[in-house]
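Subject: Protein record for review, amino acid sequence with backbone structure tokens
Category: Structural biology, sequence-to-fold work with a learned token vocabulary.
Format: Residues in single-letter code; tokens as whole numbers, each standing for a residue.
Body of memo: The sequence and its backbone structure tokens, given next.
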Amino acid sequence: MDTLFRCVKGGFDREELKLYLTAVSVYFWGLIFLAWLSFPADHRFSIMTHTFSFLGSFEAKHNPEWWWIFSIAMVSWGMLMVPVVFYYHRRLMALSRGGAAVGTFLLLIGCAGISMVGIFPDASPVIAGTVRWTDVHEKAALMVAAGFIFGLTCYGVLLLKDRFFMATNPYGFRFDHGKLLWPYLMWSSVLVISAFFLIRWEFVYPQWKAAALAEGRDIGSSWSAALGTRYSFPLWEQVMIYTLYVFLVWFALVLPANSVQAEKRNC
């Protein structure tokens, strides 16, 4: 039981961390695979036309029977990532307690957002008054994006500070900045490329629409016109989700094995 409580608080040793990340990955992606398998074949789920959340939408045009599999997966992922975030915190606080606290708080907001995405499916029916399920779902998705983008950026700033401006940190931790660079490079590259195409579409769509109107054609809304192209929101949303997952696992594995709490106990 002591081991369980220690791990919940992020106190994994290296082997426990590897086992935990493996178990969480198999569990989470196994459920996502089941949600994909259960998606009606005639609805033709595609990364180019369907958002990740459509796997968990109970609307008739999406996954009305097995939507709850996706909900279980997302609620679980949000909760199971909390110990990993605490694991990050135990190491980054060696660079700055305040900075690590801010980054960790933001990541926990992101974790809460992940679970809320599962609790509130992307569906149009009304929950109460004029509030629809999708309205809350969209706010939760924003929590995920803001929490992880700003939280991981905060951690990145601390690592840059350690690399270029700190001769040593108070606990003598040696962060392997070369290894830590690669997950950040992967994540930030995908983030920038995704943002480029999604922002670019805001300029391309009016041109396409004007050309279509001149020819007497209707290309539909900005959302529908982008589907199936490199400007598709579902495409880049899913790429960013997969990249985020890989980053979170990779980042944990290349952080120092020791934690601030462990160093205190050894003093």
Notes: Residues 110 and 154 are 14 Å apart (CA to CA). The chain has a mean pLDDT of 91. Residues 177-214 form the longest helix (38 residues).
